[in-house]
Amino acid sequence: MFSVNSFRLRHGTFLSGTHRFVPRSQRAVYLTALLAAAANGQVILLHMENMPTLEPELGLVTIPEQYYRQERRDTLDALAALARHLPAPAIVESEAGNLHDVLGELIGRWQPQLLVMGLAAEHDLLDEMLMNQALPALRQTGLPLLLVPEETDVAQDPVLPLPRLVAVAADGEAFELADSSLAFRSVLESWSAQYSIVHIVTPQDPSDGGISKAEAAVRQSGLLPAEVKCTTYQIRSQPRSKGIVQAALDIQADMVVILARPRTLLTSIFNLGVSAEVVRISTVPVLLLPTTDRPKSALE
Length: 300
Known about the structure:
The protein folds into 2 domains: 148 residues, HUPs (Rossmann fold, 3-Layer(aba) Sandwich); 126 residues, Rossmann fold (3-Layer(aba) Sandwich). Helix 7 packs across helix 9. It has 300 residues and is α/β, with parallel strands linked by helices.
């Protein structure tokens, strides 16, 4: 089964997905509900009734339909119980069909501003297959995408707070925010978070001027309100992906923002590019904000 949780704000809808509804996957649900509450929004929990496509050559056995019917009932009951205790009003929906088509219908109905998906700390073969089917459909919407890693220690509190410090990874090249990212700025403002622009240089790169260009690029894009003061942080690392994650750890950021170039949105998040590796290894949520076409960037 594949569960997608959608979160409707007064300004739009947030969609969040997990492919198995377990206690740890509530982390993404609670975080998105907090974001919705901060923006005076409503939460829509959408359960996708998609059976995975299994390749015969992989030697996988088809799971009986009765199992899926029981799992659907259990999942909807769990979602309904969870919805009653979220910090924002919540509705549970269940849809069947192709995820791409369902997302298209859902987006047309709710006009979402953000898609959110929970990520398992460890992936088995079925996990990878389900994610490989879901992520392209989520990515092709052109909407901001928040990827939330699951807590590996189930004894820890799964609830995440609203972001207090957000690390914005920037490479120094000018960029323009896509319309969907521009519309998302009001949600960013509702967090009342502080921001730090982080810039990564490789051992071969010169140290001078990079962080200043990165800060200027972010400021000129309009991502952050002009009155918002932010710090800067530069680290030397190879590869850059590890540098971004390390910088977030160094400054104790609650979230990492990656400026997703159009070519990144057209390739697999989990296979190519700096964004892919950041998503793989980050222990804090990663927000991918779409940008419009610009010259090639060192970050991606």
